[in-house]
Design goal:
It is built from eleven helices and eight strands. By secondary structure, it is an alpha/beta fold. It folds into two domains: 154 residues, Rossmann fold (3-Layer(aba) Sandwich), CATH 3.40.50; 91 residues, ProC C-terminal domain-like (ProC C-terminal domain-like fold, Orthogonal Bundle). The protein has an eight-stranded mixed beta sheet, with helices on both faces. The two termini are 35 Å apart.
Length: 256
């Protein structure tokens, strides 16, 4: 499986690195195109077998999957000259560019996917959203398998992309904002910034693992640590008095 990635920015570079560590493709079968060499050199410094080029047409020649990791306003400029077509699979990271719009720049009958990873893809822990059209079950499963190697991938309908992006892509910033706030509380209570960060981050890691491993509802896990008259329920009530739940809901809805 040969994979071409157009764009070596934060997301394109992170996907290249994730694929290079995947069990589903050989590193030498990955080629990354970018107009500037600095980012390409950084990629090859980490994974010397990744092939690089400044020529998009060279990158997509013979590729099974073409991943377009450029800014939305560059999509037309990038796709028109290379014009991917069947049996290739097009994968776009361009936010806000619909599959119907993408079909205008490529073979309209080819399999097209939109994906929305988050920045944790850099450490292979992304929540990646995927929607597709003209794709077989086998092609869809292949995309899921690829991006499950870099975290957790989930199929969604295209009309759900905005809401799902708020939760998973914008949402990572809101989770980090909680970490920052908890760190400030820890420092005020006498802990070092470094220890406050590690304690909070590991606590979040554990909470996420509980939910994902047990497929449980957060309310059930909260009940396990809220003893009557205990310190946890007092803190939770303070969060509610301050409008915590409402603030989270409003932030996510504002991100659509």
């Amino acid at each position: 499986m040969r994979i071409a990635i157009i764009g070596a920015g934060n997301m394109g570079g992170a996907i290249a690195c994730g694929l290079a560590q995947s069990h589903l493709t050989e590193t030498r079968e990955i080629i990354v195109a970018n107009p500037h060499n600095e980012k390409l050199r950084k990629l090859q410094a980490r994974f010397p077998d990744i092939r690089v080029t400044n020529d998009n047409k060279e990158a997509v020649r013979g590729a099974d999957i073409v991943i377009v990791a450029v800014k939305p306003w560059k999509v037309k400029e990038v796709l028109n000259p290379i014009h991917p077509q069947r049996p290739q699979i097009l994968v776009s990271l361009a936010a806000g560019i619909t599959m119907e719009q993408l079909a205008q720049y490529v073979d309209p009958e080819m399999p097209i996917f939109r994906i929305v990873p988050n920045t944790a893809i850099d450490v292979r822990a992304s929540m990646t959203l995927i929607c597709g059209r003209n794709a077989s079950e086998e092609q869809t499963q292949m995309l899921l398998n690829l991006f499950n190697e870099m975290g957790l991938a989930m199929m969604v309908k295209e009309e759900q992309i905005e809401a799902a992006t708020a939760l998973s892509s914008c949402g990572i910033a809101y989770v980090l904002k909680y970490v920052q706030a908890a760190m400030q509380a820890g420092i005020e209570m006498g802990l070092s910034p470094a220890n406050s960060m590690r304690m909070t981050a590991q606590t979040l890691h554990g909470a996420a693992d509980l939910l994902l491993a047990n497929n449980t509802h957060p309310a059930l896990e909260i009940e396990k640590v809220t003893t009557p008259g205990g310190i946890t329920i007092k803190g939770l009530n303070e969060l509610e008095h301050a409008g915590f739940t409402s603030a989270v809901i409003r932030a996510l809805k504002a991100s659509r």
